[in-house]
Amino acid sequence: MIKKTLFTHIKNSGRTLAIAKSGDEALGPLKHLPGTWKNTEALNGRGWNMIAVPFADGKFGYRLLLNQYNETLVFKTVDKGVPNRGIPTNTDGTDGDQFLVALDYSQTIEQIIADDFPKSGLAGKPKLKIHHEPGLWLHMLNKTTNKLDIARLATVPHGDSVLALGRSDSKTGKPIIPKISGLPIGLKNPTLSNKYLEPYKHFKDNLFQGVFNPVSPNDLLVEANKGVNIRKTTILDVDSKIETGGVINIPFITKQANATEMTSTFWIQELRELDDNGKPKLRLQYTQTVFLDFFKRTDGVPGLIRWPHVSINTLEKVSD
Q1: I want to staple 240 with a disulfide (CB 3.0 to 4.6 A). Which of 60, 72, 245, 313 is the partner?
Q2: Which 8-state DSSP code applies to residue 5?
Q3: Mean pLDDT value across residues 301-307
Q4: Contact 297, 305 (CB under 8 A)
């Protein structure tokens, strides 16, 4: 919770736009994000992505595509005191306006290697730029709804815009990373004995790059934390299903493989190991799931099969 004196200062100073500085208390739970995060040499290739996409030439009607990647994630500009004007809704004498702090980001992802099943010849070559995403993280300073103090706005060049809302938290020590399933939802037989899920079984039996299992994609985040001495973790957990959140797409995506929902969790980790300035070294892990809906469900429930598009990574802060 932001201190009352700091909130009053931000409110009274008016809106300001500047280069973001790491440790800025106005950013609240986002204060460690300003700067550049990368897959350093020690964390090379810790980015993993899985996505099922329609594929007319295969016997399943879809193919499962897996990517190993490196990433650069830059948080650069802070916009403080962003006012949302409103009318007071009570009689306690407080103002009706809400104030936000916004932190912009730019994410670029470069493929190391990719594979798919059934084989399509479309997986792409090494060093292929496979993702670019500009966006904003918001810290809501007051007038929050249901204790929702953070939000993420993302824009993807495929033709998608996302608003996801959530709550920040912190804990001592390592993050608790949940086990998630990468299998689609909406099949009559949702197990790997179902021949329709042969692409998933193929990569479970033949792990991508010898380590990545798309049936249980978060496992490598847990693996990456073994032997790492983490003293504190800040959690940024957002979901497009909460309150007024949502995903908006261009018509082609809506018709072919509709992106309907996004959840993501960032774990900002302060290590016991210190950097050259005597401050805790910082790591960032995330897991993100976007549900793509296509093909009719077979479990008797109306609607379309929901295919998890999961991305995970472990990054290190390289510059403030």
Answers
A1: 245
A2: H
A3: 98
A4: yes
**What residue has token string 């295919």?**
307
Secondary structure of 224-293 as H, E, C letters: HCCCCCEEEEEEEEEECCCCCCEEEECHHHHHHCEEEEEEEEEEEEEEEEECCCCCEEEEEEEEEEEEEE
The DSSP H or E segment spanning 316 is strand 304-319
* CA distances to 26, 35, 99, 142, 150 from 2, in Å: 7, 22, 12, 9, 13
Residue 2 has pLDDT above 90, yes or no: no
Place of tokens 């016997």: 59
Q: Find, among 163, 309, 160, the residue nearest to 240 by Cα.
A: 163
Task: Let me know if domain 4-319 sits in CATH 3.40.50.150.
Answer: no
103-145 pLDDT tens trace = 999 999 999 999 999 999 999 999 999 999 999 999 999 999 9
257's tokens: 């493989």
CA distance 203 to 218: 15
Amino acid at 314: T
Residue 233 CA, chain-centre distance (Å), reads: 16
Q: What is the mean pLDDT of residues 215-223?
A: 98
Cα 99 from chain centroid (whole Å): 24
Ranges assigned E (strand) in 124-257: 129-140, 150-156, 160-172, 230-239, 246-249
Amino acid type, 313: N
Q: Please compute the mean of the pLDDT values over residues 227-251 and round it to a whole number.
A: 98
Beta-carbon contacts of 255 under 8 Å, excluding residues fewer than 6 positions away, are none
Distance (Å, whole) CA 307 – CA 183: 7
Answer yes or no: are the C-beta atoms of 291 and 268 closer than 8 Å. Answer: no
